[in-house]
Amino acid sequence: MTHEDYQQAAGHWIKKDAEGVKMPQEELKAAVEEFILAHDTCALATGSGSFVRCTPIEYTYRDGAFWMFTEGGLKFTALETNKNVCLAIFHKYEGFGRLKGMQVTGTAELVEPFSPEYNAAAASRKIPPETMKKLGFVMNLLRISPAVIDFLNTDFKAKGYNSRQQLTQPVPSDH
Question: Could you tell me which residues are beta bridge partners of residue 59?
């Protein structure tokens, strides 16, 4: 492929999005949250320089953010210097005309262990803080604040919208 071929391929969705029928933001936000809450596992991509990592990880979603408990791992190699992340949530493939998947671009923050936010995240998972303290190591908690959510859902076509929709959200200033 030439440089121009790569550029043309990279711009495919930009062009389609510009020409497409957009869903009202409140309707889109409701559809996005419904999809997120219907799932509990994503692929979290981190990177820094030439190092990249994509980690399957369980999440909870509350207060407009993804919360992930993790023992650690190589994703922290990238997170130390680059807080920008991307995660993907996808539905089982059932055919080309029945696609559902989401790509979320945002920032990661490590939540202070046993802080009120940390304890609230543990409580939302029904994990008592005492249980976390007995592990013998500190379980890390990542909060992913979404900035852009690209949602591909072919069901949108039946409502007259493009199958791919984009929801942009400002990252809260207190995070």
Answer: none
Give the three-class secondary structure for 56: strand
Cα separation, 118 vs 124, in Å, equals: 10
Domain ranges (residues) in the chain: 3-168
d(CA 172, CA 175): 6
Provide the residue type at 62 as one letter: R
Express each pLDDT in 58-111 by its tens digit.
999 999 999 999 999 999 999 999 999 999 999 887 777 788 999 999 999 999
- How far, in Å, CA of 69 to CA of 71, rounded? 7
Fold of 3-168: Pnp Oxidase; Chain A (2.30.110)
Nearest CA among 171, 174, 173 for reference residue 64: 171
Q: Which two tokens stand for residue 49?
A: 């320089």
